[in-house]
Structure formats: structure tokens, C-alpha cells
Amino acid sequence: MTAKYSSHPAMFKNNPIGFVISVLLIPVFGVGILILLWWYLQTKAARLTVTDTEIIYETGLLNKEHSEVSLQSIRTVRVKQSFFDRIFGVGTIAIYTAGDNPEIIAKGMPDPNRVRELV
Predict the structure, then answer these.
(1) What is the chain's pLDDT, residue by residue, as a tens digit (119 residues)?
(2) What is 5-118's CATH topology?
């Protein structure tokens, strides 16, 4: 299985205002550093991978959650992008199979339309 797409959520592009505020809070008792560290760990704890046969979404550092969806069972791929998301090239990807609720929701993913095209 070769990965056609594999990425963590974007940190700066997903929330640029929060990033700037965190950097400005660094002189205030190092609060900004703690916020950036927590934010970095959250982004590195999630990964979306698209292979030839399935989509894999993994979350968590200590406790792992692993979701796999076969490409053949996917009915709909929905990409949500706000105006700023479109400027920075990120978005939320929701993958639906048979039901009304999405099987996978990946927020802040870079180049979300590429995932939609691959599926």
C-alpha cells in the first residue's frame, strides 16, 4: 500500500490569529510557549492517510484511535472551508459511508480538495 496523501493537521494555517496571539503571550510568564506546545502536540497526534484501497485516520498520543474506511464503501466526501481556510489552503474533511453521520471528520487538513479528488 502506497500512500497517495498523508498529512497532519496544519498548525499555523488552521488558526493564524491564535498562533499570533500565542506568540504575543510568550513574554507573559511563558504562557504562549505552553499554548504552542499543547497545540503542536494536538496537531502531531492526528494523521489522515489515503492509500490505494482505504482511508486511515489516527488520533491520540497516549491513547490511540484508529479508523479505517474502504474506498469502495465511501458515498460522500464533504470539504468545508471558510474564507480564511481557502486563503491558507486548509479545511475540514468529512467522509460518509452508508449513514447520515460521517465516519471520519478531519479538521484543519492541508489541501483538502486533493483528498476529495483522490477518493
Answers:
(1) 688 999 999 988 888 888 899 989 888 888 889 999 999 999 999 999 999 999 999 999 889 999 999 999 999 999 999 999 999 999 999 999 988 899 999 999 999 999 989 88
(2) PH-domain like (2.30.29)
The answer to whether the Cα torsion of 8, 12, 16, 19 is positive or negative is: positive
pTM here?
Answer: 0.86
Number of Cβ within a 10 Å radius of residue 90: 23
Q: Which amino acid is at 111?
A: D
Domain borders along the chain are 5-118
Give residue 79's region: left, alpha or beta (phi > 0; psi -120 to 50): beta
What residues contact 17, with CB distance under 8 A and at least 6 apart? none
User: Which residues does 30 contact at the CB level (< 8 Å), separation at least 6?
Assistant: none
